[in-house]
């Protein structure tokens, strides 16, 4: 679908508004670097070096070719978090800024910076506006209900929701030995089907088992692509915060896992360590956590509240979209980037600026999108009690949430 709207909005759009200086200029949002340095560019750059056909466009990353490649994704390990904790992660820290090919530096997640969106971007090599998982929860235009794209609830046909082949499937079809090594529970999930399937899946419970098996799979003859994953850095951050001993302990543990894997790499192999998003801790006070369920002004004209605290999709009742945008911008516009659907699409939140989004994806995006700039979240204490109780949050485009590492080890 062609691009929507008139492009990024600036404060000039409200010349008669006496509060215009307090409204964040949408053009100041630090956009994902789709096509040049985003998570969606990683696997295309890897498999182009393995001579896999079927990928459109030119990869935005210049990675030296390698026949044997492993991608290790650490859920929740943002670039800024890693740089702030060298003592807990000495091995990963040693890889910062070490490569001539742009690795050792950050990539950007897509928008929103959340697990379902990012894993789909990694696995398909596409931005959210194409693969169609543009948030934690989004409206299904066919039913009018919110669909949780991480838990896949309510159930929706996965391949109708995300019809594109994964990079793993393209690599497997091209004769590359392709596999995923992850927790057994993820083998048959719809998210794995649409984002990470292709080749064979190997379920292992412990992190050490995953590292050892991933290294063993790299020893296969010929071209090889291995993906492995660890989730508990994110889990501890949500439960206890990234300023907790629990989180720092997980960072130290996963640093050891990465070193364990790197030390077992066979000759002529490349290991890339990356993540899906960072995280920020927010205090439990009304200024930092604005409760949608208790705020009549923000609820006015809203049919559904989607997304998550730091990146909200807001779905208006018919005919109320303009009014909802005006209210959210008035109430939150000095602390969050608040855009209409068309403004966000045209500005490049869900794909390269001007590229638009797939037609099937357009209605999944909120009538209004609110992305946090300050240390603030829109929680929903009654309708989202579990999410509202999380200490660490993510989803927006701030550097601590959006920037993720791309670290490289070669043998």
Could you characterize the architecture of this molecule?
The protein has 411 residues and is an alpha/beta fold. It folds into two domains: 11-30 and 283-390, Gyrase A, domain 2 (2-Layer Sandwich); 39-126 and 164-281 and 399-410, Alkaline Phosphatase, subunit A (3-Layer(aba) Sandwich), CATH 3.40.720.10. The protein is built from 17 helices and 17 strands. The protein has helices at 42-48, 79-83, 90-94, 115-124, 128-131, 158-161, 167-173, 190-195, 207-218, 232-240, 245-262, 296-299, 321-332, 341-347, 359-362, 385-388, 399-402, and strands at 68-74, 105-108, 137-139, 146-148, 177-182, 200-203, 224-230, 269-275, 280-281, 289-291, 302-308, 311-316, 336-340, 368-372, 377-379, 392-393, 403-410. The strands form five sheets. It has a seven-stranded mixed β-sheet, with helices on both faces. A four-stranded antiparallel β-sheet has the order 11-12-14-13. The chain has a two-stranded antiparallel ribbon with strand order 3-4. Strand 5 (177-182), helix 8 (190-195) and strand 6 form a beta-alpha-beta unit. Helix 9 packs parallel to helix 11 (245-262). The longest helix has 18 residues, at 245-262. The radius of gyration is 21 Å and the shape is globular.
Separation, N- and C-terminal Cα atoms: 43 Å
Number of separate strands: 17
Oligomer type: single chain
Task: Bin the strand percentage.
Answer: 15-25%
The biggest beta sheet reads:
7 strands, mixed
Given the structure, what is the number of helices? Answer: 17
Estimate the mean pLDDT confidence. Answer: 92
- Poorly predicted regions are 1-20
Shape: globular
Query: Could you please say which CATH topology of the largest domain applies here?
Result: Alkaline Phosphatase, subunit A
